[in-house]
């Protein structure tokens, strides 16, 4: 299927690896030009070079922390009027409620709520004026199915979902959609770090903790980042204009749902 977005321009945040990179690659495969952001210059430039070579699209890399005003300003200066915005950020570290400091809360809210909100605010009206816009927020399945050690992530990301729900009705009539993707267990660095924390608590090795979790999953495996990337690309497509305000769980059936 031709997604009808060839020649469009997308900003993809936290795009040097993992799910962010997967989204960037899927969009590039559809002929979308990219402006990629991440904090690590070397990894980001490597990703940008590889995607441009593989897909023949224009790829610009902007190094910076999207959680800071300076990082967002640099990204917006490079691409003030994108057609597509993919908000993504590394989640807060795992832990317990009484172990989190004020600084932990500030960083979680800055990266997973305030930063994507600021990016949306900077772009959504322009998208509406131009008659096309696709905003996808990569959040987490913990919003719907909380995990005891990921309370910071659940709290900050749930706030973003609430914000998105207030924006949908005023913009879908201008062909601007906002949706959230909620990944479950995917084979990423983030998954490994979370299970390293859990393994330490349980007194087992990280590999043992990962193997035990894999065995519990109905799919018998962790998700591959490309699977999420292709979902993101469809939500950004010309065919998805009637899908807005949705929080789509992609987890291989890991969490029971009530239909």
Uncertain runs with pLDDT below 50, 5 residues or more? none
- Report the radius of gyration as a whole number of Å: 18 Å
**What portion of residues is helical?**
40-55%
Distance between the termini: 28 Å
Written description of the protein model:
- The chain has 259 residues and is an alpha/beta fold.
- Helix content is 47%, strand content 14%.
- It is built from eight helices and seven strands.
- A seven-stranded parallel beta sheet has the order 3-2-1-4-5-6-7, sandwiched between helices.
- Helix 4 links the parallel strand 4 (84-87) and strand 5.
- Helix 1 (18-29) runs parallel beside helix 2 (41-55), helix 4 (102-130) runs parallel beside helix 5 (151-171) and helix 6 crosses helix 7 (206-216).
- The longest helix has 29 residues, at 102-130.
- The radius of gyration is 18 Å and the shape is globular.
- The chain starts with 8 loop residues before the first strand and ends in a 9-residue tail after the last strand.
Detail the topology: elements first, then pairings.
Blueprint (H helix, E strand, L loop, with lengths): L8 E4 L5 H12 L3 E6 L2 H15 L3 E5 L5 H10 L5 E4 L14 H29 L2 E6 L12 H21 L4 E8 L5 H14 L3 H11 L8 H11 L11 E4 L9
Parallel strand pairs: 1-2, 1-4, 2-3, 4-5, 5-6, 6-7
Helix pairs in contact: 1-2, 1-8, 4-5, 6-7
């Amino acid at each position: 299927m031709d997604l009808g977005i060839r020649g469009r321009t997308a900003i993809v945040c936290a795009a040097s690896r993992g799910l962010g990179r997967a989204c960037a690659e899927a969009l590039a495969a559809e002929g979308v030009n990219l402006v990629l952001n991440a904090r690590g210059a070397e990894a980001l430039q490597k990703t940008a070079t590889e995607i441009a070579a593989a897909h023949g699209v224009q790829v610009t890399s902007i190094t910076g922390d999207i959680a800071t005003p300076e990082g967002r300003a640099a990204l917006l200066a490079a691409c003030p009027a994108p057609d597509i915005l993919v908000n993504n950020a590394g989640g807060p570290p795992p832990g317990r409620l009484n172990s989190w400091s004020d600084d932990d809360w500030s960083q979680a809210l800055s990266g997973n709520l305030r930063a994507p909100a600021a990016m949306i605010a900077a772009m959504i009206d322009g998208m509406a004026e131009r008659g096309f816009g696709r905003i996808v927020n990569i959040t987490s399945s913990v919003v719907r199915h909380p995990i005891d050690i990921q309370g910071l992530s659940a709290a900050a990301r749930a706030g973003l979902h609430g914000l998105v729900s207030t924006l949908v009705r005023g913009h879908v009539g201008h062909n601007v959609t906002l949706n959230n993707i909620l990944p479950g267990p995917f084979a990423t660095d983030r998954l490994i770090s979370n299970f390293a924390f859990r393994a330490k608590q349980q007194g087992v090795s990280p590999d043992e903790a990962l193997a035990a979790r894999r065995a519990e999953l109905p799919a018998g495996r962790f998700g591959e980042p490309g699977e999420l990337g292709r979902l993101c690309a469809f939500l950004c497509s010309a065919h998805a204009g009637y899908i807005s305000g949705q929080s789509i769980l992609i987890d291989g059936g890991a969490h029971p749902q009530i239909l």
